[in-house]
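Self-study notes.
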Amino acid sequence: MKFLCLGYYNRRAVEALGPDQLAAVMKQCEPHMAVIAGSAAVRMHVGLAAERTKQILRTGNAVKVMDGPFSEAKEVVGAVLMIEAETIEAAIEVAVLHPTTQVPAGEQLGWRMEVRPVHFLDGVSLPT
């Protein structure tokens, strides 16, 4: 099975850090990122940029492109992983190695990881 993992953070808490503080937190992430990168179960791992974000939505008969993220959004997705594992428990064993749960400073920054089974990939339904 495939599992999509979304790593969230509190945008306001991260923005409140100074550049040196943020760099120090990100430095703590490096060993955990290496573990994730070395996992055979991880099929994809990306970090998402906060700048130049756009939202596409349909309103009536028009499709609109709007700037984002929106200021009222407290939580932001900052990382996306695709894990292949036999069970959600096995996927969690891999996802828990990510900096969102391993770096102590992440607690104050609202870091958390959500693990979701994928039921559809590239137009093909997947077994559940």
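Second protein, same conventions, sequence then structure:
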Amino acid sequence: MATRVLIVDDEKAFGETLSLDLARRGYTPTWAGSAQEAIDELQAGGFDVMLADVQMRGSMNGLDLCAKAAASYPDMPVIVITGFGSMETAIQAMRAGAYDFLSKPFDNEALALAIDRAAQHRTLKAEVRRLRDALSGPARIEEIIGESTPMKKLFELVDRVADTEASVLITGESGTGKELFARAIHRRSRRQGGPFVPINCAAIPPALLESELFGHAKGAFTDARMDSPGMFMQANGGTLFLDEIADLPLELQPKLLRALQERCIRPVGKDHDVPVDVRVIAATNRDIESAVEDKRFREDLFFRINVIRLELPPLRARGSDMLLLAQRFVQRFAQKSGKRVQGISAPAADRLVNYPWPGNVRELANAIERAVALTSYEQITPEDLPQRVREHRKSHILVGGDDPSELVSMDEVERRYVLRVLEAVGGNKTLAARILGFDRKTLYRKLDRYEQSGMVSHG
């Protein structure tokens, strides 16, 4: 919808001229010739932004009107306009509740920019309040919060697969909540009364990982002073969560495959198998299909763990979920620290929305914990956010300008877009190929060509 602007100025010529200009720019303007007319207009219908001249005839000037509007319509930003610009007038306008301040004569482009900023401020303020209210209801899946379409589809899939015995592979960038989803599946399954045992395959030295997974007999190696059951036995009757499965050493992969197929394990140093009743949920933040193609991960094991696939979206692809999560973290860390921090200001929300969150939910939680610790107000401000979030500017793919010397070929346009998509998905070539509409081999050929030409280096 077009931004609805209420113009309040007792100079008819100015009001009508400004109304025509704003209408040409796509706004929906309404002119009021006095403060009282403006109050009547505000009571009759909603406006997104109000422009109020300070000097007006009658008992109420623009600053009085601004104060009244700020009290009665706190969600509507007011831009104060005056022909007598001074720092004192600006301070009075801000104290009266004005969002912005412009001095006559002003450039209409500058006014349009101020109106757009004010309208965005209104939208963000309303969204922050809506998300705060939404948090008073129950979370969809325990600690997992999300209203976006990708998350709703994941919630539905979790409900459908939880009570099966099928192996599940959860993929997604680091910090997207893979273990949270694994725990949610476990809690909704028939195994909820059994243990949930997580193990990070990348965090344990390869020489020790076999013993950690399958257990060992006393004397199996130098430090084996007693029998150890291993993670499979600890998860017996429950769920074993194998995080960073793509980093599992190649020599252990046949043993894991046999354990999944035969539902039995052989501890290190023993000569007989031990039956186990375990559901396995695996996860990785790597492009596991590339590992299969490169022979770093067994294809038969991949098919065995990839019976059901949950692909977790990055935070930047989840729309307003980011602010919903940010508000939840504000509540959590404020309660933990005993501070009276109640929410996020609209300017801070704007910085949060524009940042790409390469560390996803984990990075967001750290940023909000820092902000709650540093803020001196009841709302988080931009100054409370980490520098990388405050100062981030969106990047764009620059194709060229009007100067013919700046124009580029279609091959160059494609190269820039391919690399931008690859960057946006965290280097996941499978996902990038799907977005680009290529098969994986085509994407690899293009990347190899870029690398050979010295345009890019990829791993």
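Instructor comment on the second fold: The chain has four domains: 4-134, 149-311, 316-390, 404-452.
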